[in-house]
């Protein structure tokens, strides 16, 4: 194994802080709840019975480990690096989100909370949460922006069928940010009975750390699988970055292996102007949004900017604080793929490999397609395929004129 273990990777400098980022910027009423959650999570993390139950559900219910699939026809078509996909799309409910939903669902149960609230963008986290609530017998309320409800209608119907109540959010841009605000408002009001099951590596401490931990299985399996198949680590791991949960889950196991490039792909949307994309690392600046200090798309007055992406799951004005630290430290690179590149990647992957990626995941595939041709056959790219494309068929039919 040609890998050098090096220390001094930007990691949590103190609990909940990633360099200068992260923290806990919430109203006083939520402080006690976050401290309670932190202690409950620390205890659960150290409890072998909790880990065993989670491990069993990940395996027998969700379908872990997911395969690492080599893409021979895509590799040949691009003519450079070998391309592998980590198949989170094959998990129950169709995306990586179930890893975190199962972890937090079990934690809520352990804490004696019977009512679960969640926010959702593309609807994948809402579906995963509704699924876990059905499995564990918990009440479930999901907040979702009305724009997202319209473009991800299938997931709204899935949540309802699973017994969840979907509450439409009509404020602001009617997307993920507004759904998170509504969920936080609900939590403030019902904090004693209610568990807030946050869907990405975002928000106040302990969420970014906890959500990352629940997705670490992605990178752990990836590393073991690529070593089995190729006997060496990849040249790069590529993942799309909305809030950053699938990416941090994929990256974390490789942080110490400095020879492995870590590439996060943000949504380039429809143009470079503020409001047309969700590229936090290009035009964002450090600021506080929804409980955490990270890069935020904001105007000169500190008003949160509108964002756009063809993929609802990448359409958010801030990004997980651990990514902010990895960005500033230069350990991970952040690039963007626009709507067109993502749509092209969907078609290319569908027709070369028979795999329909989620539009979010297609951003990562697009970056692999962009850089592979200039690399050699000795290079390996592992793309985290965070979800499957079924939920996007309405958008794809319209955009691709199918
Ligand atoms: C939600 C979602 C994302 C974006 O969320 P992250 O927290 O950045 O991973 C990416 N891909 C899929 C398929 C999703 O459902």
Description:
The protein has 402 residues and is α/β, with parallel strands linked by helices. It contains 15 helices and 15 strands. The strands form 4 sheets. A 6-stranded mixed beta sheet has the order 4-5-15-10-11-14, sandwiched between helices. A hairpin with a 2-residue loop joins strand 1 (12-14) and strand 2. Helix 3 packs across helix 13 (339-353), helix 9 packs across helix 10 and helix 13 crosses helix 14. The chain is globular, with a radius of gyration of 19 Å. The structure holds pyridoxal-5'-phosphate. The site of pyridoxal-5'-phosphate has 21 residues, from helix 5, helix 10 and helix 14.
Output the keywords.
402 residues; four-stranded parallel β-sheet; 44% helix; 18% strand; binds pyridoxal-5'-phosphate
Overall pLDDT: 95
Number of helices: 15
* SSE series: EEEHHEHEHEHEHHEHEHEHEHEEHEHHEH
- Rounded to an integer in angstroms, the radius of gyration calculated over CA atoms is 19 Å
N-to-C CA distance: 46 Å
The low-confidence runs, each spanning 5 or more residues with pLDDT under 50, are 1-8
- Give the assembly state of these chains: single chain
State the secondary-structure class. alpha/beta
Which word captures the global form? Answer: globular
Please outline what is shown here:
The protein is of the alpha/beta class and 402 residues long.
